[in-house]
Amino acid sequence: MLRSNLFRSSCWWLVTLILGWYSLIGRIRTPNSTAHSNVHPSNPPKGEAVLNISSSLPVRILCWVPISTKSKSRAQLIQKTWGKQCDTLLLMSSKADATIPSIGLPVEDSYTTLWGKTYEGLKYIHDHHLNDADWFFKADDDTYVVVDNLRQFLSSYDAALPHLLGSRFAHNRLLKGYFGGGAGYAMTRETVRLFIEYVYDKQFDICISGPNGEEDSYLAMCLEILDVIFGDTRDPNGSERFLQLSLHNLYRPSDYQATLRAFFPSKSGLDCCSNETISFHPVKDEQLLEYHYLVNYRQLGTHK
């Protein structure tokens, strides 16, 4: 019986791996694919993000990634892969390191201080790079981002409005929910400005102060009060573009999906993930190069 169970478990992992690579190679939108549809999966209620279909100007994206002082090799992998496709890439740590290079923030280097790294990172962006981009995308150091898909997706939104976009989850204390930090989230210049002016500069009197805590839900708590527009980032089929969990978990049966506490109904199997996928999380060091190759596989294959 034990051998039988182990055999079935091994087969399940093998099937998941095959399906995952199939999704990466055959389903992800690449620069040679057609642009995504501007049809929203549902009519957004009041306060939801509204698509700006007429926008045709190039979208400038600043990507910023909080890193540990011990993760220099991972930072370099990000620079070699998806990070180089951003218009600006900022790697932020608790200590500046010119060999990466990384920016030093006045926060202790600890996983428990992600909230502090987030608001200090936004402060640095506000003071030094606010006019260098239209959108500011925060990703974890174990995230892979398909920047071309992100750029195409963001081009459909009005960058002059205070938007927040990403993988949206329900929360028992937040009416609008929050966006998972692992999959990354994008905000406009106006969102950054509102956060600094009404939260950071006001000593966090409308939300939670101190460096410790869950950065994604804490950020949502601050921005919800400011009427920032929280978007529905699913594709027209209702599949997720920002993947907060690994492909192995997302492909699992629908009863597992209930544990995600997704803000919108989630799907399982091959329907879980959009063919316009923007981000994958978590991704191990060696997988960053694998994802980068597979995401660009179709584009490379079309060259004669």
Automatic annotation (TrEMBL):
Every Fringe-like glycosyltransferase domain range: 72-226
Top-rank taxon, per record: Eukaryota
Enzyme Commission code(s) on record: 2.4.1.122
Glycosyltransferase as UniProt keyword: yes
Keyword Nucleotide-binding: yes
InterPro entries xref list: C1GALT1/C1GALT1_chp1 (IPR026050), Fringe-like_glycosylTrfase (IPR003378)
GO terms under cellular component: membrane
Pathway per the UniProt entry: Protein modification; protein glycosylation
Membrane topology classification: Single-pass type II membrane protein
UniProt family annotation: Belongs to the glycosyltransferase 31 family. Beta3-Gal-T subfamily.
Pfam families: Fringe
Official protein name in the record: N-acetylgalactosaminide beta-1,3-galactosyltransferase
GO terms for MF: glycoprotein-N-acetylgalactosamine 3-beta-galactosyltransferase activity; nucleotide binding
UniProt-listed Gene3D superfamilies: 3.90.550.50
Annotated localization: Membrane
Keywords on record: Glycosyltransferase, Membrane, Nucleotide-binding, Signal-anchor, Transferase, Transmembrane, Transmembrane helix
